[in-house]
Amino acid sequence: MPLIPEEPQIHESAQGPRATPASGRTAPTPRPVPGPRPAASRPGRPGPQRPAPPVQRTPRDVAPAKPSPSGPAATAAPAATPQIQLIPASADGALDAADEAVDLLLDSGRAPGDVLVITTGAQHPWAEHELSFGEAPYWAQHDAGDDVFYTDAAMASRAASRPVVVVAVNGGPASAAASALPLAHTRAGALLIVCGDPQQINTVLGAGV
Predict the structure, then answer these.
(1) Which of 3, 10, 139, 202 sits a CA distance of 20 to 30 A from 82?
(2) For residues 115 and 61, is the Cβ–Cβ distance under 8 A?
(3) CA 27 to CA 112: how far, in whole Å?
(4) Side-chain half-sphere of 110: how many Cα atoms within 13 Å?
């Protein structure tokens, strides 16, 4: 069933974990406004490097494991289907919309290591910068899992699952989106955010998810 384009709003349903402030009340999630961002605010461009978590920003989405009583091991519950959020954007504006979405996720309390960003066209500037030092250190940062990680559709199959996956449909061949969107759906634990042309996204997700 096709997705209906929504206002650019990031929210998480009861299907997946969400961050809560120290008071225990649910923190309101800001609405992303797709559009150009200052170049200095993006990882990998002149200015600050990759977004780093503030000292007080800690993952609150995973509850501590409880000791299991003696006896047969409990059967793990099946993974919940991630919520899908569509942010309409042109191919030229999809990367900016994805960056805005990431910023708002971090501002709402998501840990940087919870977020994976996939592009269907040109690499994100952060990925271009890090790959200039070689693939080994680039993937070592992915394995560390303590920061937002950016990759493209061609390499996304190597990326591990994360609670939130953001896809920027920023061009590239039609096959890139056709492969990246279903893959992103399997990698997203709680929330899949897709920035791009609604008609193209609905067509791909409707057939592949």
Answers:
(1) 139
(2) no
(3) 17
(4) 30
